[in-house]
Design a protein that fits this description.
Blueprint (H helix, E strand, L loop, with lengths): L10 E6 L8 H9 L3 E4 L1 H10 L8 E3 L4 H12 L4 E6 L8 H5 L7 E4 L4 H9 L6 E5 L7 H8 L3 E6 L5 H10 L5 E7 L7 E5 L12 E7 L22 H10 L7 E5 L5 H9 L4 E6 L2 H14 L4 E5 L14 E4 L7 H11 L5 E6 L2 H14 L2 E7 L2 E6 L2 E6 L3 E7 L10
Parallel strand pairs: 1-4, 1-5, 2-3, 2-4, 6-7, 11-12, 11-14, 12-13, 14-15
Antiparallel strand pairs: 7-10, 8-9, 8-10, 15-19, 16-19, 17-18
């Protein structure tokens, strides 16, 4: 534990080691000698003064809520002399570090970390921690980052709270088809009450809940597949594989994009796109209940954690979804073609792209009329596919019906290249 500095900081932040074996008592005593005021949350101050009785002679400042007000008070008291702020583990690991940067100048801070809970848990299991993705579920409703990590089959460290318990996580893994993840659950790391459990998501979960750390480690490799054969999606109709590939290319997808697949049918396009959207989200929107349920089950089977099934009719069911960067319209324009296109493009983010797969000429006419009326930037591509079929002991090429791919890009200043 290094404590030397060329400049005396206003505030020294000391991360107390959860396990005393990692703590240098001599270094801590030197910090106490140069400190005028001790600060921290009640339990942390209680732990520190029990571990270092000499600290009881120092004035104490107990942090409370609202935290921002406590930190401003801390800054004011720091003008009177050096302050030692006590935290647990690494203050920059889901700790106070980031909030302190909003109140103190960088030159006024000195941060001395101890091993984080993730480091200690990995040490207990004798596994490397450099490739583990740490995530905190404390007070969070948006679990999209967990979805991303599951979709990429990553090693994950989860900081849990009362609501997001080990049982909750096990259920979430089952729901996303991640049955192959081993769960290593730790509570009270480094204390005399330290407890460890090992489970698979399908096994009973006796852990009662509460703050805990769960290491989720995949037990096998998983490689997402781009371009699954149409037979995989039987009995539902799936957009022909070459058409899906062309449509994906026309959407110019980036890993963090949000995609709507409208009229998802079998979900084939959604699963192709999800391979590219490794840190994004795919919403497979399907009106027919039985098809939507099959998409959900296929997402579990394929462990496509970033694919979210939406049962409903567009555009009515889209209100609560995040605005998309890309839209694939593969379920037909239906009778309200122009109305639907107008509603979808209105939700597209600036620069976003919509690709519609169209077979019927009347639907194509409606779509082109929308493009000309609205003055959007558009391009049209015709996909004509011939595939080999058995014939007379050999094979011949049989043509399929042509498919038109209409590409619309949204800009702040409307322009189009289709005239």
């Amino acid at each position: 534990m290094a404590t030397t500095s060329s400049k005396h900081p206003v505030l020294t932040v000391l991360g107390l080691s959860i396990d005393e074996a990692f703590e240098s008592r001599d270094a801590v005593m030197r910090l106490l000698e140069e400190t005028r005021l001790l600060a921290g949350f009640p339990k942390t101050l209680e732990l520190f003064t029990a571990r270092y009785p000499a600290a009881r002679t120092h004035p104490l400042l107990t942090l409370g809520l609202p935290l921002e007000q406590s930190l401003r008070t801390l800054r004011e008291r720091g003008r009177e002399g050096p302050v030692l702020l006590l935290c647990n583990g690494d203050p920059l690991f889901f700790g106070l570090g980031a909030k302190l940067r909003n109140v103190f100048q960088p030159d006024d801070l000195r941060i001395i970390p101890s091993p984080s809970s993730v480091q200690l848990a990995c040490a207990r299991l004798s596994i490397q921690n450099h490739d583990i993705r740490p995530l905190s579920l404390h007070g969070r409703d948006d679990l999209s980052r967990l979805d991303e990590a599951l979709a990429q089959n990553e090693k994950i460290a989860l900081l849990l709270d009362e609501r997001h318990s080990p049982s909750f996580v096990a259920g979430y893994l089952r729901e996303h088809g991640a049955h192959h993840y081993a769960m290593h659950v730790f509570t009270d790391l480094g204390s005399e009450n330290e407890h460890y459990e090992h489970h698979m998501p399908d096994s009973p979960m006796p852990h009662p809940g509460g703050p805990a750390l769960a290491l989720l480690l995949p037990t096998r490799e998983r490689r997402p597949v781009f371009g699954l054969p149409n037979d995989f999606f039987s009995p539902d109709y799936a957009t022909a594989l070459p058409v899906r590939g062309s449509a994906v290319a026309l959407l110019s997808l980036s890993p963090t994009h949000v995609l709507w697949d409208i009229g998802a049918g079998s979900g084939a396009f959604s699963f192709d796109a999800a391979v590219l959207l490794s840190r994004g989200r795919v919403y497979a929107v399907e009106e027919r209940k039985e098809r939507a349920e099959r998409i959900r089950k296929r997402a579990q089977l394929l462990q496509a954690a970033t694919v979210h099934t939406v049962h409903g009719r567009a555009p009515e069911c889209l209100e609560t979804l995040p605005d998309p960067d890309a839209i694939f319209l593969g379920g037909g324009l239906m009778e309200e073609g122009e109305t639907l296109l107008r509603a979808l493009t209105a939700r597209l983010r600036p620069g976003g792209i919509l690709v519609a797969a169209i077979v019927l000429l009347e639907s194509l006419g409606k779509a082109l009329n929308f493009c000309r009326t609205e003055g959007v930037q558009w391009d049209l591509h015709e996909i004509q596919i011939s595939s080999s079929r058995p014939l007379a002991g050999d094979r011949h090429m049989k043509a399929s019906n042509p498919v038109f791919l209409l590409r619309i890009q949204k800009h702040s200043l409307p322009a189009h290249s289709g005239k």
